[in-house]
Structures
1.
Amino acid sequence: MYLRGVSFTYAGGALPALRGVDLVVRRGEMVVVMGASRAGKSTLVKVLNRTIPSFQPGSLQGEIWLLGQRCEQETVADFAGRIGLVAQDFEAQLFSTSVECEVAFALEQFGVSPPEMRQRVHAALRSVGLEGFEERDPATLSGGEKQRLAIAAMLALEPELLVLDEPTTDLDPLGKEEVLAVLAGLRREGRTLVVVEHETIAAEMADRVVFLAEGRVLADMPAQAALRSPEWFRCCAVRPPDLAVLAHGLGWAEPVRSVEQAAARVRERLMPVQKDDRAAGQQQGEASGHDVLLVAEKLSLRYEAHAPPALANVSLTIRTGEFLALLGHNGSGKTTLAKCLNGLLRPSDGEVRWKGVPILSIPLAERAVAVGYVFQNPDHQIFADRVWDEVAFGPRNLGLSEQAVAERVRQALGAVGLLERCDDDPFWLTKGERQRLAVASLLALEPQVLILDEPTTGLDYNEQRQTMELICRLHRQGMTVIMITHTAWLVAEYAERVVLLHRGELLFDGPTHELFARDDLMNAARFRVPDIVRLGQRCGVRVRSVEELVRMVGRRSEDR
Amino acid sequence: MKLSIYVVANTPLHRLHPVVKVVGIFCFFVAAFTAGSPIQSLPLAAVVGALLWLGGALANVWRFRWFLALVFFMTFLVWSLFFHSEAPWFAWGPVRLGYDGVRFALATACRLTTFFAVGLLFLSTTRVEEFADALGMIGVPAKLGFVMTLAFRLVPAFVDAALSVVQAQRCRGFDFDRGNWLERVRHYLPVIVPVFIGALRRADLMAMALEARGFQLPGPRTSYRTYAWGWGDAIALVGSVMLAGTWLLWARFAGGN
C-alpha cells in the first residue's frame, strides 16, 4: 500500500482533512496511526478502503496504490474482501441475529460455497476467540466480544490488508485486553495491519508509528523510537507512556524498559525516604465530618427474573465534596448503581435516600437539581438546534423565569468554554464539544451531585484533560462528583475514593491508593494500575502522576 | 435487557423450512382476518396459543402482555361505543351502545389480538436471516429482501436508544407525563430528535460496513444456512392452507357479523 501526496477536502469543508500524506505499508507490517481528534485519522482510513471517494464526496488528490494497483475509479466493492475495515462503532457494523450469521454475511455476498463458508466462519471465530458463541445473538455480547466479532466478520474474507479504526476506544479494560490480544495474534499470523489507536500499548506491538496532525504526517518512525519520545505523543494528543515521560523528565539518557528498572533508578535518587514523606503525594479522601448527601442501603436489582442480579446488596454513603470513581468492567453494575442513585431506576430491594428522604418520593424537578446525571453518549440527549437552547432546556423544565434561565445558561456555557458557540447547531460540534455541551446542560440545573458516565470516552488526550480540568474546577467549587470510568490514569490522578463493583457486588470502597495496592481486586476488575503508580508503590511513595514523582525527585535532589 | 423477539431454541416450529413459515404465517393472517365473530376467532386463537407453546414463545406473550391487552381492550372499547347499533341500550351523541356493537367489537378485538399473536409466533421462531432467505427463495431480489427485513434488525437498537434518551431527558427535569394528551405527544420531540439523528448516523456507518462486506457485488449469493424439506414441512404447509381454507369457507357460509 502506497500513498503519495494524498490530500482530501470534504465537500462543503473549508479546510482539507488530509494534506499531502505520504505513507507506505509493506506486506506483513503493522502500522499504528495516532493523532488528535480531527487530525485526519478516520479520513485516512476511509481513503485506504475507498470509502473515500466512493461514498464521501469531496476533492481527492495524489497517488494511491492499494495492493499493488493504482487507484483511479475503483470503489469499495472492488476491494471488498481484499481490504477489510473495522470501524470504531461496532454496534453499527453488526446487523445479524447470530454470531455465525454475522461472520457468514460477507461470504454469502461473495457466493462462497456453504462447506467452505462453514470452515472459514469457524476459522475466523477461532482466531478472535469466539468459538462456542456461534448461536449467540450479537446484541447480548459484551463490547469487547462485539468488536472481536466485527473483526472476525472481516477476517472471514481473508483480507490482504486489515484496517482498524480505533478498535478499543469504546471498550472496558477487559474488552481492550481481548481486542489487543486478537491484534497480537493477527500480527503473529503475519497479517498486514493498519491500526488507528489512542493507546500507546498498541504501539508497543507495531513495527512503525505514524503521527498525524492537522491532516499531515508529522512523523513516521519505528515503534521503539516513538515509544521513547513522549513529545511526539503529546503533539498528537495521545497520552505518552509513563516511563518515557519519567525518563524525559528526569533527564535519563538511557531508555527504561520496565517499571522495575525505573524503580531501581528512582530509589537511588529518593533515598533515604523519610516516614512523613511516604504519603505526601496523595491527599486522603477523608470525608468524615462532611454532611451525608446520599445513602444507598442494601440495593438489589434484577432486570429479568432469571438473570443474575445487576446489583446485589450494595450499600454506599456519599458526603458533600467527595470525588468518587465507580469502577468495574461492563455489566458489573456501575451504571445501574448510578441510575439508582438519582432515582432513574427503582431497585428491587433496598432504598436510596437523599438527605434522609427516599429519593423516589422527591418530585422529578427537585431530583434533577439534587443529582445530575451526564449520560455516556451525549447524542442521547442533544436535540435542540442551538447550543443555547440545548442548555436552556433543563432550567426551563424547572419553571425558572427567562431571565434566570439566561443567567444560568451563560454561566454553564462559560464554565465549559462554549459561550462563543451559543448560536451554533450542536450537530456540528466535535464529540469533545458535544460532551462538554452535555455537561453544561446538566450544570445549568446547578445540581449538588454530578454523576458522569464515562465522560472521556472517545476524546483525545487533550480533550480528556480539558474535560477533567472542568470537572475538577466544579469539584473545587464544592460540587460532589461521582465518575464512572474505565481509564486508570484518570482514577489515579483525580479520584480520592473508589468504589469497585464486580457482577453487581461491591468489592471495594475506600481510598484510591489502597485499591491500587490490592492486586487481587485489580485483577478481578482487569484494571491495569498506571505504570507510574506501580513505580511509586515499588519505591514506597504514593504518587498520582509522573509530574508529581519528577517534582518529588527534584526536591529530594535539592535537599541533598 | 433483551430486546429481540427471536427465541433461541430448536423446536419443531423453529426447524420448519422458512418458506413454509412465511406461507404458513400468511395463511394464519388470512384466517385471523376472515374470522368475523368471536366464535370463529376463539378456536383460531387456541391454535395459535398451542403453537406459541410448541415454539417456546409463551415467555414472549408474557413480555408483550400489556401490549396485547391494550390492543384488545382499546379495540373493544372504541368499537362498542362508536358502532352504530340498530337497537342501542344507551345513546348519547355519537355513542350508541348496543348488542350488535358489543358483538362486533368483541370480534374485532379478538381478530386484531390474534393477528398480533400470529406475528409474535413468527418472530419468535424465525430468524431475520431466515425471513430474508425465504423472501429470496420466493423470488424477491437479495438486496430488496435485506432491506425489507432491515426494520426487524434495527427496531431493537432504536428501542434501546429511545429508552436511554427518555432517561437522559428525565435527568434534566423533563416530565413526560405533564399536560393533556396533545402536549404529551409534543413532549416526545426531545426523544424523537436524538433517536432520529442517531439512526441517520448509524445508517451511514452501516452502509459503509455493508459495502466493505461486498453487499454491492453483482454476482450470485449463497446462503450459510441450508434448508431441507421434510415431512414436517409438508404437514405444516398443508395444515396452514387447510386452516386458511376452512376459515374462509366458515366466514363465507356461516356469515361473519
2.
Amino acid sequence: MSQIEQQLINGLALGAIYALIAIGYTMVYGVLRFINFAHSDVLMLGAFAAYFLAPLSERVFGPQSITGAICVVVASSALCAGIGMLIELLAYRPLRNRPKLAVLITAIGVSLLIEYTCQHKAVFKAETKPFPRLFPSQDFRFGGLAISSNDIVVLLVTVVLLGILWFVVQRTRIGTAMRAVSFNHQAAALMGININRVISFTFGLGSALAAVAGILYAMKAPGIEPLMGVQPGLRAFIAAVVGGIGNLPGAAIGGVLLGALETFAGGIPGISNYRDGIAFAILILILLFKPAGLLGRVQTEKV
Amino acid sequence: MKTLATIQRVMAVAGGLLLATGCGPGGGGGGNATGGANTPAGGGEIIVGEYASLTGKEATFGVSSHNGTQLAIDELNAAGGVLGKRFKLLTEDDQSKAGESATVVNKLIAREGAVAILGEVASSRSLEAAPICQQAGIPMISPSSTNPKVTETGDCVFRVCFIDPFQGTVMANFALKTLKAKRVAIFTDVKSDYSKGLAKFFKEGFLKGGGEIVSELDFNGGDKDFKGQLTTIKAANPEAVFLPGYYTDAALICIQAKQLGLNVPLFGGDGWESDQLLKIGQEAVEGNYFSTHYSPEAGSENGKRFVAAYQKAYKGELPDAMAALGYDSAMILADAIRRAGGTDPAKLKGALAATKDFDAVTGKITINPQRDATKSAVILQVKEGKFKYVETINP
Amino acid sequence: MNHQTGAKRYLVLAILLSAGVSTFSHIFNRYYLGVAIDVGINIVLAVSLNLINGHTGQFSLGHAGFMAVGGYAAAVTSIQLSPWVPPALLPLVFLGSLLLGGLAAAATGLAVGVPSLRLRGDYLAIVSLGFGEIIRVVLQNMESVGGASGLKGIPKYTTLGWTFALAAITVYAIACLVNSTYGRGFIAVHDDEVAASAMGINPTRYKVTAFVVGAFFAGVAGGLYAHHKQFLSPTGFDFMKSIDIVVMVILGGMGRTAGVIAAAILLTLLPEVLRGFADIRMILYALLIIGLMMARPQGLFTLGRSRPGTT
C-alpha cells in the first residue's frame, strides 16, 4: 500500500520539475507561437552556471549553506535570463515577421549550436561532471515512506515560483502586457505596448525558470553533461502541449501528470521497459479526446 | 507541369555534381589528423583509423576510449614506431549516432587508406561498422564492445575485451558465493545492448546456481529519475541488486536507492569503472561491487605504468575501463603489425588471431578462435571512496 | 497532357542515367558512393515528408518512425528470403522487400493518420512524435529483430542506381499526385481547410492520403537504408532523425519539391564536407543552419518563384 503513496511522492517530485520547464515553453508559445527548442539547453546552462558558481559561494558563505545556495540559484537564473533574452534578440527577433517554421528551424539550430559548443573540449567537455551539493540533504522516513529533503525543496520551490509567476502574469503591468501580446500582437502594439520589451521579458522569465529547473534536476541527479536538458526538455514540451500549449496552469498540470505517469509506468515489471512509450501512448489518448489539451480552448476557425 | 521538368533538371545537375566530387582525386580538406607530433610525411607511416563517439549521448565513453588509444599511439611513436614506421591515427567522430559509423569507417578505409580500424565502445555501432571492414578485408579491433554478435560478423573483426556471457556468469557466481545472496533483483538499461546482454547471462547463471530473481525492471540509459523502479525493487525485498549499466546511470541509481532506503549491495559490470562513479555517487556507492578487467592494485607493472602515464597526459585524470581498453586495442594492433612484418591485411589478420598472452594493461590477453579476448576478470568494491580489489576470476 | 509526357520523358531519362551510373559505380571510391546513396535516401525521405508537411500543411514529427517500420520490415523480408532464392532473382527479392517495407509503413501511416485527424499544428506534431517514439521503443523491445543491439546481417542490395531510380520515382509519383486534379485538394487543405471543405473537398481524406503516401515512401527509404548500411538499430530512428528530415523540408521551402531536393542534398553533403574541421564541425553546421534561415527565411531554393499562400 505504501508503495502507491511512495510512487505518488516520487512522481510529484519529478513532475514538479517538468512543470517548471513546461511553463517556459508555454510562455514563449503564448507570445510568439513557436516552440523554443533551445529552452532545454538553457536548462542545462543553468545547471552548469550553478556548477561553476558553487565553489565561489562556498568560499564566501562556507560549505553547504542555505544562503549560499539561494545566491547561487538567483545568480544562475539571472545569468540564464540574460542568455534567453540574448538568444531572442540575436536569433529570433530578426525573423519576427517571417514564417513561424523558419523560426522553428532557427530554434533547432540554436539548440544544436549550444549543445555542440558546450560539448567541445575547450568549453564543458562531453563528460559527466559531479554536481556539487548546494545544501545539506537528509532523508526522512514516515513509516514505510521515504522522502528526501531534495524532493521537499523541489516541491516548495515549484509552488513558490508558480505563485510568483501567477502574480506577475495576473497582477502586474508587464504581466497584463504579456497577456495582451499573447492575445493579439497588433492590437497590443496599437495600445502602446512595447512588443519587443514584452517578448524579451517573457524569454527572460522563462529562461530563469528553466535555470531553476535545471539546478533542481541536477540536485536530484547530480551528474551533469551538455545534453542533460534534451530528455526533460522533450518531456516538458509534451507536458506543455498536453496541458494546452499557451496555458500556464495547463503546463503545470501537464508536467505533474507526466511525472506521475512515468513514475508509475517505471515501477511495473514488464512495463518499465516500455516506459518511454507508455507516457507517450497515454498522452496521445488524452489528446485524442481533448484535441487542444487539457485546459486549452478549441479555437473554431473563423471564415 | 513546369515544376516536374525543373525538378528533374535539378536532380540531374545534383547527381552530376555528386559524381564529380566522387571522381575527384583526394577531394577537399584532409582528414582529422590527430596523430602524434612530428609524424614524418610520405610512405613511412602506418595509417590507423579510429571511429569513436566524441560528441553526442555516449561521448563520455567515446572520449575516454579515444584518449587511451591516442596515448598508446603517442607512446609507440615516441619509441620510434613499429618496423621503422610511425603511426598516424585518424579519428572520426560518429556523434553516437546510428548510420554515422558506417559512413566514417567507409571514409577511413576508402579515402584515407587506413590499414586497420579501431572502435567502438557501443556494440551497436561496432556491429554497424563490422560488415564494412569485413567486406574491405581490413582488420577491425573493438576495444570494448562486449556483445557476442560483434565478432561473429567475420574473420576481420576482433576485440580486446571479454564478452557478456563470461562477465554475466562471473557476476552470477559472485552473487551466489561471495555475497551469499539468494534473492536478487535485476535493473537493466533497455537502451543498451551491453546492459541487456549482461543481464541475460547473469540471469541464466544465477538461476542455474539456485538463486531467485525477485524483480526485473528496466530503465533507459540517460534517464535521471529511477525512483519509480527502485520503489518496486525495494518492495520485492531483494538481498542484492544487479545493475548492469554505465557509471553515469549507476551512480545516480545508487544515490536514489539510498534515498529510498534500499540498503542492500548493488553490483554491476565493467561499465561501472570510472573515477566519476565515486565523484558523482560519493557515499551512496560505498560498499557496492563490480567486475572489471584489471585493478591497478593487483595488476601488473604494466597496468600501474599505464595509470601513471595516463594521468600525466591528461591533467591528472584517472583512466577508466574504456580508456584502458582503448589503449590495449592500439597496443595489440602494433604488436600484430610487428609480428606480421607489415600491414598486409591477410598477414595482419593472421597475426592478430595468433595473439597469445599479450601483456596488456588490462591483463594477459589471448585471442581465441572466435576472435574474442580470453582474459581474467577482477572484482572490485568501493571502500572509503576508492576501488578495492576483492578477487580475480580466471576464464 | 503534353507536359505530362515531357515529365515522363525526364523520369525515364533519370532512371536510365541512374542505371548507367550504377554499372560504373564500382570505379568510384566507396566512401563517396556511400555518401551519394545517403543523399538519394534523404531525397526520398524529404520529398515524402514534403507531401505531409509541405503540400498538405500538416506538421508531422514522426517520419523516422515510418522509416523504421519500413526498414525493419524490408530487412526481415530479405534476410528470410535471400537464402532460398537463386542469385539471379535477388533483385526481385530486394524490390519485393522494399515494397513490403513501404506497405508496412503505409499501414502505420494509416494508423497514425486516422486518429490524428482531429488535431492540428503542434498537437499533431506531438502525436506524430509520440507515435515515432513508441515505434522505436517497441522495436527496442522486440528481441526477434535484435532488440536494443540491432538487426545485423542484412544483405547489401542497395546500389546507387536503385537509390536514384527510386528517388526519381518518388519525386515523380508525388509531383503527379499533387499536380493532378485530385491532388489540387492537398494544396487546398494546406491553404484553407474550411474553404476547402466548403468547396466539397474532404480534408480528412486528403490528410490521411498524405500520411499514407508519405509513410509509404518513407518506408521505401527505410528499406534502402537498411540494405545500404546492412545494420539497423532502434536508436537510429529517434526523434532527432525526424527533426533532420523536417529541417530539410523547411530549409528547402515547404511544398517546393525542387527546393526540398536541393536542401536534402545540401544537408547530407554539408556535414561530410565539414568533417575536415574536426571538432568544431557540428558547431559550424548549426551556425550554417541559423545563417541560412536568416538569409532565406522562405526556404533556400525557391528559384525566384513564389506560390501564393505557401508562407
